[in-house]
Design goal:
It is a single chain. The protein is an all-alpha fold and about 240 residues long. It has 2 domains: about 120 residues, Serine Threonine Protein Phosphatase 5, Tetratricopeptide repeat, CATH 1.25.40.10; about 55 residues, no CATH class. About 80% of the residues lie in helices and about 0% in strands. The N terminus is likely disordered.
């Protein structure tokens, strides 16, 4: 028992000594202590201000994105009929939302639609780096794959058939892709047809029918195959 009391007493004495030492240090270095406390308080204020600013910025980005999308899809005004897309008006709003949103989720969506708008305005070369950035950085699979699909379209329209082919093929061959692989193949087949590469177009259409017989575009693939065969027989 005496030994246990002795140990307990020693621990108490050590605590008291440490407390006195701390008090002595504060008394001697009170300016430093005040500075540390003040710095901690300032840090808390900075964190609070940052949280407030971030929330405000997120709200602003979301508002800009909503307005840009309204113009992009041509949403009708209240009480009016259908309206046409207003890409030229949507673009600067989506650019601002993309710039202010940065790497946030609304910022990535704004970048996606910024690239899509550039593409719809016939500015495919400008759309490519925007869509490529979304495709390579977006953590959301659907957004990344959607950007890759538009990227392939932009590459084709800018005249780079091989890059477009590679992008469509990557979409079709990636396991678990959010973009339907049969649709990616159909887009590729159409691209081959437009460029007069009939054999490659038919091979791609046949791949759709073979791999995805119950897919949503298998009917169109079969019709294109039959149409191509009929055209060849007619020329004979």
């Amino acid at each position: 028992m005496a030994e246990r009391i002795s140990k307990k007493t020693i621990k108490q004495d050590e605590f008291i000594d440490a407390a006195f030492d701390a008090g002595a240090w504060i008394e001697k270095h009170w300016r430093t202590a005040v500075a540390v406390v003040a710095a901690a308080g300032a840090l808390l204020l900075v964190v609070a201000a940052w949280n407030w600013w971030s929330a405000r910025r997120a709200t602003e980005v979301s508002s800009l994105l909503a307005e840009g999308l309204r113009l992009y899809v041509g949403a009708p005004e209240s009480g009016t009929g259908p309206a046409a897309p207003r890409y030229a008006e949507a673009l600067p709003i989506l650019e601002e939302a993309s710039r202010k949103g940065g790497g946030s989720a609304p910022g990535r969506v704004a970048s996606f639609y910024r690239g899509a708008t550039l593409l719809r305005l016939g500015r495919a070369a400008e759309a490519i780096p925007v869509l490529d950035g979304v495709a390579s950085s977006a953590s959301e699979r659907a957004l990344a794959d959607g950007a890759r699909a538009l990227l392939a379209e932009a590459q084709a329209k800018s005249g780079d058939l091989e890059k477009a082919r590679a992008t469509y093929r990557s979409l079709a061959d990636t396991p678990g892709a959010a973009f339907p692989p049969d649709v990616a193949l159909l887009q590729l087949a159409r691209l081959f047809e437009e460029r007069g590469r009939t054999r490659e177009a038919r091979e791609t259409l046949q791949e759709i029918v073979t791999k995805y017989p119950q897919g949503g575009v298998s009917g169109e693939a079969r019709a294109r195959l039959q149409g191509g065969a009929s055209a060849q027989q007619g020329r004979r």
